[in-house]
Design a protein that fits this description.
This protein is of the alpha/beta class. The chain is built from eleven helices and 16 strands. Helix 6 (about 165-180) runs parallel beside helix 7. It binds beta-L-fucopyranose (FUL).
């Protein structure tokens, strides 16, 4: 009898232990977030990857980039205006958000504002009864697109502009019209450009109004608060790029911050991702002699913006007829097809590569999570032990994978962490391993172009340094870009 009791106790203890171990495994909690973190609106914008802006207005008809404010409204007459054509082009190019320049520096409003006569209502277009903002907002929604507005604080027409308080109130009135008459607004862009004026604006009031009236809107400007301008107008983020930055050091229109905006700050107090604005043509507005950029240039811009954890803000200027020109449409379609060709196939995932790692935090954080496209499933190593701990993750397939682009993504919903990494390929030309790419930051998405294609069946990402010592990798993929030059490595 005594023996039976002992056996029952022993078996019970064994089961309990296993049960407990099982529970322990299941109960490994997710790693703690590393502040600051993105908001839901910021994450949504980041995942769009590309946003289109349309520069259209008085400058389209005067063949200028910056109007001076004295232009006659009679000049504005886009006889073949068709907002549906614009929205269809945006949709076919696979952008999900379109922004319109509702008022540029010349002060001419594309909607019939009650606060000025310098608008479409004084133009011959539709006998003064037209409203470009309304037409595009409706057309965009018909295509399932989100809509945003660019509104220039610098207004060279408005006489109140000299008066800081009165102009800020005037501007707030115009902003309120845009925020209340045209349905949901996903982004508001306050351009920081202004010349020969030291006038400050009541900027925080405007931002409060946007957030009160449009809960899903991100505000883009040189000082955020939700999205920052990237510090240049050629669509390129720093090769080191932090979504984190000290928001309180930023000031709209202050050139001393442009370098800082471009790179950010690993110890920044605010999460303010960047949008990289650039035009598909030489100018922001349409000019008869201007041509769209070549596909190679656009792809280079894509790698330097989306591929550096930012959002590409691509401008396409409608012409004097009021349409997006056929050559721009053609280039946009080529651009879309090229991106799909390069990124719709992840060679590691399609080879069903096995994924191993230096350590694993628990079942929910398995290395294989890097093969799916979900930002919220990721590989997490064991908790930080000491500064000598090196984290790595390795893709290995039966067949060699031929690639010339490496894609790495962090689980940025829990913060941006990686500060230094290297990628090695094994077995290339009989060599044990070769360094194929290296870098500092990763963020939402890092795309590294290789010197030439590489054929390897084993590729390893080594993370040498990360904030908090605990990198969280959401995706690790290999791609082939047929548009890249370069010989086999
Ligand atoms: C700049 C403006 O001065 C340009 O005209 C253009 O609108 C560009 C996007 O922003 O600051």
């Amino acid at each position: 009898m005594g023996r039976i009791v002992i056996w029952v106790v022993l078996v019970g203890m064994f089961l309990c232990c296993n049960f407990e171990v099982g529970l322990c495994n299941l109960a490994v909690p997710p790693p703690p977030p590393l502040m600051p973190l993105p908001t839901a609106n910021q994450l949504k914008l980041q995942q769009r990857e590309m946003v289109m802006v349309l520069h259209f207005g008085m400058n389209t008809f005067t063949n200028r980039e910056w109007g001076i404010g004295t232009e006659k409204p009679q000049l504005f007459n886009p006889m073949g205006f068709d907002a549906n054509q614009w929205a269809k082009v945006v949709k076919e190019a696979e952008f999900s958000l379109v922004i319109l320049t509702t008022k540029h520096h010349d002060g001419f409003c594309l909607w019939p504002s009650k606060y000025t006569n310098h608008s479409v209502k004084s133009s011959p277009w539709k006998d003064g009864r037209g409203d470009v903002v309304k037409d595009l907002s409706v057309a965009a929604r018909d295509q399932g697109l989100d809509f945003g507005v660019y509104l220039s604080p610098w207004d060279r027409h408005e006489p109140l502009f000299a008066n800081e308080v009165q102009y800020s109130e005037f501007f707030r009135g115009q902003l309120q019209e845009l925020l209340t008459k045209y349905g949901p607004i996903s982004e508001v862009w306050f351009d920081g450009a202004k010349v020969n004026t030291k006038m400050a604006f009541l900027f925080s009031q405007w931002c409060a109004l946007v957030h009160q009236l449009q809960i899903s809107a991100n505000i883009l400007s040189d000082e955020g608060p939700d999205v920052r301008w990237v510090g240049n107008e050629y669509g390129s983020a720093g090769s080191t790029f932090w979504n984190t930055i000290n928001g309180s050091s930023l000031k709209i229109g202050d050139p001393s911050t442009f370098g800082y905006l471009n790179i950010g700050d690993p110890y920044g107090t605010h999460w303010i991702p960047a949008q990289c604005d650039v035009s598909i043509r030489g100018g922001w507005f349409w000019h008869p002699e201007d041509k769209p950029k070549r596909l190679r240039e656009l792809l280079n811009i894509y790698y330097n913006s989306v591929g550096r954890s930012c959002v590409l803000l691509l401008n396409v200027p409608p012409n004097t007829t009021g349409l997006i020109s056929p050559e721009d449409v053609e280039r946009l379609m080529e651009f879309k097809q090229a991106i799909n060709t390069i990124f719709s196939v992840d060679l590691a995932a399609s080879a069903s590569a096995s994924v191993t790692a230096s350590s694993v935090r628990g079942e929910a954080f398995a290395p294989a999570n890097v093969l799916n496209n979900d930002l919220w499933t990721y590989w997490a190593p064991e908790d930080y032990r000491n500064s000598k701990t090196v984290n790595w993750i390795c893709l290995e397939s039966k067949e060699a994978m031929e690639f010339n682009v490496v894609r790495i993504q962090e689980a940025i919903g829990l913060g941006q962490r990686v500060m230094k990494y290297e990628v090695y390929a094994f077995g290339v030309d009989g060599k044990e391993n070769i360094l194929v790419s290296s870098g500092t930051t990763i963020g939402y998405k890092k795309l590294d172009r290789l010197k030439g294609p590489v054929k390897a069946s084993k590729v390893i990402l080594i993370i040498w340094e990360s904030r908090g010592g605990l990198p969280l990798i959401s995706s690790f993929g290999l791609h082939f870009d047929p548009f890249l030059k370069g010989k086999q490595v």
